[in-house]
Amino acid sequence: MKEQTIQxxxxxxxxxxxxxxxxxxxxxxxxxMFIMDYTEGQGWHDPRIVPYQPISLDPACMIFxxxxxxxxxxxxxxxxxxxxLLFRPQKNFERLNRSNERLCIPPVDEEFALEALKQLISVExxxxxxxxxxxxxxxxxxxxTEPFLGVAPSSRYKFMIILSPVGAYYKExxxxxxILVESEFVRAVAGGTGEAKTAGNYASSLKAQEIADGKxxxxxxxxxxxxxxxxxxxxxxxxxxxxxxxxxxxALNGSILEGVTRxxxxxxxxxxxxxxxxxxxxxxxxxxxxxxxxxxxxxxTGTAAVISPIGELLWNDEKMIINEGTTGPIAKKLYSTITxxxxxxxxxxxxxxxxxxxxxxxx
Amino acid sequence: MKEQTIQxxxxxxxxxxxxxxxxxxxxxxxxxMFIMDYTEGQGWHDPRIVPYQPISLDPACMIFxxxxxxxxxxxxxxxxxxxxLLFRPQKNFERLNRSNERLCIPPVDEEFALEALKQLISVExxxxxxxxxxxxxxxxxxxxTEPFLGVAPSSRYKFMIILSPVGAYYKExxxxxxILVESEFVRAVAGGTGEAKTAGNYASSLKAQEIADGKxxxxxxxxxxxxxxxxxxxxxxxxxxxxxxxxxxxALNGSILEGVTRxxxxxxxxxxxxxxxxxxxxxxxxxxxxxxxxxxxxxxTGTAAVISPIGELLWNDEKMIINEGTTGPIAKKLYSTITxxxxxxxxxxxxxxxxxxxxxxxx
Lengths: 363, 363
Ligand SMILES: Cc1ncc(COP(=O)(O)O)c(C=O)c1O
Ligand SMILES: Cc1ncc(COP(=O)(O)O)c(C=O)c1O
Hints:
With about 375 residues, the first copy, chain A, is α+β, with helices and mostly antiparallel strands. Chain A has helices at about 65, 90-100, 110-125, 200-205, 205-215, 260-270, 285-290, 330-340; strands spanning about 5-10, 30-40, 45-50, 55, 70, 75-80, 85, 135-145, 155-165, 175-180, 220-225, 230-235, 240-245, 245-250, 275-280, 295-300, 305-315, 320, 355.
């Protein structure tokens, strides 16, 4: 697979680039995309970079009926000296393959996928916005394309990468968000697909999200599906709490997505000699810490927002205002350190960033 | 909505019809499909019957990423006197709307959807196979089509109906199948999407199904996601057991799909004065009944197979052979009665069938 060369079919026309004020999240796409196909017996084949364009699929394709699909999300950043950095992209392709395994999708060659991503970004370098907090969002995904109405793994797939220049994910910016603790709906349960980045997990979250929206909350905090007692994660973030000096995040228990940002936060905190514990964490413990004044900070971690301080939690009818609704010092330091590493302004002691060279052929 | 007329754009070419021996399940599609679009602010619009063809979608369409989609499955049957019958189609469109509600998809007008289906079938009448056990499988489905990489309900959808002439679903025909009781993976849990007919439920089932396949079992029997003790349903069937004279099926608890066949079986059994109980049913109870010789019958119910007798259950390492691996008398009677009603050979005391008239405009 690694030997395959990526065909380049560049678009004669280029779309106008948006102003940085016009950037939202995931609405604008660049001029090109990467695509390769999988056929049973043949493996992944025909890798190519082509003009961004609609895909044409038989209405019986399995993706439309049985949701056999996985995706990833990461970002490319432009440094002040005009270099392009990716943040730990290998982790995303490793996770993609873990998701593939759960969804019975054939694995991709992780090195080749990264190479494809680099070439695509090299073609689209001019699309990376450079204003503070902006970046190029990267969406690799795989869909099952066999036209067959039977519940079985597909014999054909498409792997694609599309790119979207983005502004800040949360309208509130780095300001704290309000989160609703979900007591009725369930996102995932051990033995299900919660650990995988797959469409169904997000489809099932829409209803709770819609209700939270209506009440003025940004996202929901999921509790475990069994007892609805233990904290799992937020809609698209992992979550951390500082309780009486101890920083705690729910352990990876099989129903939580293993976030790349979560992992980076844990590494950083350790390197700062701040104790961080991965363990089971009951919502009741948070409530008691809150009551006794020991709930010092709470924040979410994810590619979109990087660090998202939590200023308020609503659990049933109980409202908990955290850190007087302001951003705490740990969230602040993590945010500036990680974004600093991502955009090349800070040292990168862990070698997290991967530079994208300019490929001669892509211009 | 009901006022809208359905545009007819008939194909100048017709594909050759398959021989009845060539019919599998869900691989061959007819010459036309029904499609209508939803746009926020405008509602469902542009209903049309067009040649069966690929659909062209932006790679950012939400269906590819967040799985906001629902589907249905029902069948049309050709009677000996050349009439076309649908089996309780209203129930499928009611269930479609219940699924829509759970997935935050705007409802469709159920009467209009049925009207659209009738017109489509009228166009495709020649595709309905007439050999014993064959039928025309009908797949209505809705996909979210807004090109947006944010987790939120889509502002655009497509509702489609495609048709596939099918033979018998199980290779084994009405013969008993072997079912593996799943102890590791979980399909659904209360608060999740188990009650809805949506893609993610099936994606999450692939892994367990693949393992069962490898061991020579046709499908898996799901236990509840909380304690893995109580019986839920089979991959694409509800399930009934006869224990010491009592016919039992798991009660609708929020994580089981409410099958149309399940409901029909319950009605029929009641009309025959056979006691049937909907209640919680532990796998351990089945095991004990088996040991004491009181497990008299077991069968699955679903549109594809209608009634599928279960000849063997494997739970952990324990093998239970039911009714000596043969089809029991109740399964047999239910099968012949329901298929008889469906193909017009038996009386239809409940008015379950709906006849599809020939529309003048469709020929
Ligand atoms: C459910 C869920 N949890 C957590 C995360 C955070 O993961 P990461 O830090 O890799 O972006 C995401 C993705 O962004 C997610 O979708
Ligand atoms: C999960 C599941 N359970 C049960 C059934 C049976 O439902 P019905 O009798 O309406 O076909 C189906 C669908 O066919 C199904 O997909």
